[in-house]
Batch of 2 targets.
Target 1
Amino acid sequence: MAMATHHFRPQRYYTTIGPHEPVLRIADGDSVVTTTVDSGGRDASGDQVTPGGNPQTGPFFVEGAEPGDALVVTLDQLVPNRRTGLSGTTVAPGVLDPDFVRLLPEFAIMLWDIDTATGTARPRKLDEPHDGLVDPPTPLEHLVLPLEPMVGCFGVAPARGQAISTATSGPHGGNMDYRGFAQGVTVLLPVAVPGALFHIGDGHATQGDGEIVGTGIETSFDVRFTCRVAKGVGIRWPRGEDRDYVFTVGNARPLDQAVQHATTEMLRWLEEDFRLDLRSSSTLMGQAVRYEVGNVYDPAYTMVCKMPKRLLPERPGDGRG
Amino acid sequence: MAMATHHFRPQRYYTTIGPHEPVLRIADGDSVVTTTVDSGGRDASGDQVTPGGNPQTGPFFVEGAEPGDALVVTLDQLVPNRRTGLSGTTVAPGVLDPDFVRLLPEFAIMLWDIDTATGTARPRKLDEPHDGLVDPPTPLEHLVLPLEPMVGCFGVAPARGQAISTATSGPHGGNMDYRGFAQGVTVLLPVAVPGALFHIGDGHATQGDGEIVGTGIETSFDVRFTCRVAKGVGIRWPRGEDRDYVFTVGNARPLDQAVQHATTEMLRWLEEDFRLDLRSSSTLMGQAVRYEVGNVYDPAYTMVCKMPKRLLPERPGDGRG
Amino acid sequence: MAMATHHFRPQRYYTTIGPHEPVLRIADGDSVVTTTVDSGGRDASGDQVTPGGNPQTGPFFVEGAEPGDALVVTLDQLVPNRRTGLSGTTVAPGVLDPDFVRLLPEFAIMLWDIDTATGTARPRKLDEPHDGLVDPPTPLEHLVLPLEPMVGCFGVAPARGQAISTATSGPHGGNMDYRGFAQGVTVLLPVAVPGALFHIGDGHATQGDGEIVGTGIETSFDVRFTCRVAKGVGIRWPRGEDRDYVFTVGNARPLDQAVQHATTEMLRWLEEDFRLDLRSSSTLMGQAVRYEVGNVYDPAYTMVCKMPKRLLPERPGDGRG
Amino acid sequence: MAMATHHFRPQRYYTTIGPHEPVLRIADGDSVVTTTVDSGGRDASGDQVTPGGNPQTGPFFVEGAEPGDALVVTLDQLVPNRRTGLSGTTVAPGVLDPDFVRLLPEFAIMLWDIDTATGTARPRKLDEPHDGLVDPPTPLEHLVLPLEPMVGCFGVAPARGQAISTATSGPHGGNMDYRGFAQGVTVLLPVAVPGALFHIGDGHATQGDGEIVGTGIETSFDVRFTCRVAKGVGIRWPRGEDRDYVFTVGNARPLDQAVQHATTEMLRWLEEDFRLDLRSSSTLMGQAVRYEVGNVYDPAYTMVCKMPKRLLPERPGDGRG
């Protein structure tokens, strides 16, 4: 099967993930090269081309994907495509002790210089005062952060004909804001409608755990991804894989419930694909599991449950090879 | 000031952390070499010498420590001192989707061989059947885990004359079950009573994030720790430091509240010791913070908020040399 | 203005609340007489006429309703229209201590006789065995419960073009499963799209607090409701009013967050309509507020915050008269 | 057996509930007439006689009470014994949407006149300005609230030798701040130490659900209570009974977990004393249970699960008669 690469230039964007008219139909195994606007709807030129709120490129219809399958998406390339980004400058009230909230400074946005050549981001002074924008505070003037590009929001059309805001997340993916969704990672999503309808957007040049200021360094991206269909691979929550780990993703509040979803999904995965009975998987996870916080900012929080591949049995061919 | 090293052999153990009669008085800066029994009360010989429930060695009275100070404890050495450990073999019901709980196998304990020479732990077959003990399940028969010794439970006498069960945790420390409390780490605890009254126990040869099977690999330890007093360093939650990170510890349920405590405490610390105003610390944490899950098993959950030291300003001399 | 009463016979039903094609356009002040199917899609004859999942009658387009207004719906009549209902017979695992879950009997449904003449419901024996249905357990054979009909799920199209599953709830209303949504109650909902698009369904002949078995006594209803538009009355969460109380409704998990939404919305309401500054409203609520649990079963839990009208100041004409 | 009535005048007070030296030994069935200071440590004269923090009268040693029994306490009389009380005037930040917190006025205390003759409480103007005290806001100047006296904090020594702050609550009781703990109610508490060691304090002239301003109308009380021992009645959480309801009490955070504790305890009670198997109790609770919020302010929140006695089977003699 010859895999095609599609170059797609978005004309419109959605701020829900749902059963929208597909912008492109691709075959199982095809790749797409396209762009995403930043969370505020600004493109590579910095122009606002669509209203904000994590606007999504897509949806892409993947032929052969049917409810009950998993869509397997490899994030082949995630590259900021402009030289500026924005971030919040105050920790979200919901992440702080309630009686500390009154001490917070006013919400404001700060600019960053993004340099993909050096792989760094630096706080950027304003050319002139803007409402709601602040200059980098003095202690951060010489800060240099490494770029670790990731996508905050992507997913497939949810079950039951729902169209769900890109502010939040669920079994279908959505606004998970997990910094582990980086270049090279492969993600599985539960297909709920024919064609899966994959959406993607909300690039971050980098982001801390939890997205606790409500943003990463928000910017527009050049992206390339490849979609395959894993027939009959019924999953309940997003799953992912990088070089060293397999991981599962729970999206819910409180974080405890996100832990429950992610942990249960990992037990299921270890049984289905790695042939570990529940006592084996429990014992192993007990001593080797890692958790990472996606976000503790959005309406649904995101918790990731990871297992190191070197400790897991060989998988029989799992249809995703 | 000449620092002394005290060799202490425990005669009794406590399953609360509280204002108990000190077993030893030490000077500011002194070190203690002692032992801890495992969570079930078994010592280096495997004999049960005290009832289970995370029995603590101590308390140690540190001269000069007064309410309003911080006790600074360096975990100099944490070494398993017998060749066997125990772990749970089923993920705790509270960490799973409620409707998955019925699929769990029966609770049972498994043995491990601990080899400090090779730095490994391996599942161990039973010599003969025991009630409540199971053989390693077949898929784990050849598993080898690296030792990463840590202490699950330690702390100082809490405020208000309380004596708090070593099953749980709070501002005073306690049963945090965080695998980052490893050899070489320095921990700060808020002193609430004269002498601080430091307790320590519950060694784990290793443990996954979250302690989701309710145990690490539980075993007895040889420990060495050093206590200093940071006068007037008022902290609200445990703080710690290793080579690369400073971190704060929140203990509460749900995990969201533990996040709030740890994050707020980090903002306070960055302001007090690193001279970062709230907008600077917020902005920096937003893009660089890391969270680690201590436990999601005990009555209070534990969340750790970490900041990489390389991104922080130089600290003025902070009395903790 | 002459108010019309529309008699509407539903032909199709939705299991999302969203921007669906209206089934009827009505004027501000009009009433609708119609029917709802039960949560499983069964009508007055007991025939399954649509798939289950809280199918909704509607949506009804209310002329003049615009984003920023409140839709004011009076539930004029809520009457079960068949003689049978169904309920769950096991408390939901999520409402129980996790280690108790394994003791639960198998999930099963029980039938009830509904008698609107006597206003009672009684457990009903099966005519013949059915899979998934159980006979009333012996201790309940003579149980008689009073009917307290209510609607579990209703709402208006949500913001941002979303279509949200009728399994859950949010600012737009939805599956709140609050037994206080009974005949005679007036509800305010935040209008997010032109015409508001009111949906209604999921009648319960009665229900305990929390809907802890996952159901009330589920049955089909004859309903009559009246819709008015409160222009410019911007609300964030559903509000309601009965003879003695005003109340606000928060939908979220954990229940703590639902408490936050409902309490904050009540403070806003007391300020906007009752002219109570925050210190007055706080002081009064502190000693007089009542909370009621809607549901602790659905993906979002529901908490209701109530204030007795006799303790509140007179309202100036509030546009809802 | 002749029951005695003991008149006890407290000399000292505790701000933990724990294994303190008993102030009085009483027989099974005896009554105690005594007084409690208010949460701030002020007595009937308004004098501060002990530090604040819900100081407790007691503990009372009840002869015959052993671990594994329940202590049955009837709150015979709860009467405010001075003419003034105090309350908070701002809703606690933790009960509000995090982004609303900054709108709160400064924390301050208000005085109330308490009139047991008319059974009313009214806001009271200050005789002269005091730091931290405010005059009643104008809209509340003519407010009259009915007295509904209750005790916020009481309990027995907890398990494991713990001494737990009277700021919080647990299986042993403690600071539950539930307005249903009113005169005439009978409460069961799980005995963990010989003699049970009953403590009582923190009277409120009235209180709203949730204690959302952090206080009821705090005042000192004359109290009379009667203690009996229910041998071998093993309970896990406080239980209570009034004329119409039996109820169980869960103390935890988040509120969801308090719901789990209270609901599970009710299922246990219905099985043990009312002979309802789990399917019967589930079915009945599903349609008839009521929940009430104790507090959503203290470190542990309190949720009460109630069942109407008229719907329950006759109890066989339950040893508490």
Note: The interface with chain D takes residues 15-16, 18, 53, 159-165, 167, 252-254, 256-257 of chain B (CB under 8 Å).
Target 2
Amino acid sequence: MHPDLIFHQFFESESSTYTYLLADRAGGESVLIDPVYETIDRDLNWVRELGLKLVYVLDTHVHADHVTGAGEIRRRTGAKTALSASAGVACADVSLRDGDELAFGRFRVRALETPGHTDGCMSFYCEGRVFTGDALLIRGCGRTDFQQGSAERLYDSVHQKLFALPDETRVCPAHDYKGLTASTIGLEKEFNPRLGSGKTKGEFVRLMSELRLAQPKKIHEALPANMACGEKGGPP
Amino acid sequence: MHPDLIFHQFFESESSTYTYLLADRAGGESVLIDPVYETIDRDLNWVRELGLKLVYVLDTHVHADHVTGAGEIRRRTGAKTALSASAGVACADVSLRDGDELAFGRFRVRALETPGHTDGCMSFYCEGRVFTGDALLIRGCGRTDFQQGSAERLYDSVHQKLFALPDETRVCPAHDYKGLTASTIGLEKEFNPRLGSGKTKGEFVRLMSELRLAQPKKIHEALPANMACGEKGGPP
């Protein structure tokens, strides 16, 4: 990692969500990835103590398990919100397409379309790290049974976009439920039980179709709120 | 951080404990810091998948809130257990004094005596990171009201040993309860509300004496178990 790139990982325990802060030490321009509504104060306090200026708030996708902090952070800081054009979120300031780049100071975040968990899933690459949202989790992946989910598309996204990155690329997912904090592309290629170690697309599709998961507790609150950048329907 | 130093942070959610893995990519010798009994399988699976060989299992102190995984990991892997000589844990393979170093591959962990939360608290320094146990937490510190705790000694440990490290040193604590994962010495000097920003020893001692905290839930199980390296009294 570049010595002037500040990196911080935050964890929100109710939804087991990781939020990430990236910043250029020189000048202090910074981006937040996947902030959670309930932990906005903590995250913005950290930004303030580091003396940073938020320029973008990114969502990897329209989350179903928590309300995004993006809209409220925009309101408080003036940062621009950004996510995939395919997510259909009209209130976003920036609609991203595959390959688009967002600058903060001397660094860039590159958007990689990685649909499958949802239509509008993006991963974000920056300086040897990839923020994979729910497309690729540590030894797992996001579900594909709602929000236009498609196991076929997720398999292709992971194999064609994420597994094409160098093996040493650090994988920073949107969630973990077992206390794991990061992985690498090389480790997930080898040990991901759903998507790695030679699993075929057919095997993956069958496996995903048999999961029979319960609905996320907050889905009926989170989806409409997140389509409005978290500004309506969030906790009062 | 040296490019050949593997670093991984794990989280155990019941006791909010961070466990750390450090390894030399060349040769694979590695150390675990503060493993928790309940998450031994997860941690050792990670070690195995990375192809590492554990040489030491370190405890920063005799924990009161969880049972250490050290003894059981020693039994399964042959790694040596190590902690402060002042902890009085007779079953430890290595009893550490201030300034002692333990080698794993081409790297060294240096022991820093940082008593105050307990008599036998140590911090461990390695390649720009300091593993502070409960001596210094992110914007906080460990309690000082049992296990020979002393607010005076903790203040001196933090100010004389930890705050003497370079400002950019990454602080990796044994716990966090708000989803913060790491800090730096510079940030804690400036923003730690108990120990930083010009707080005097007198102010700190008074503050610590007024906390009136409840006892840790597991203290009556954890202390005797941890005095036996976690080998007796751990979950069956």
Note: The mean pLDDT of chain B is 95.
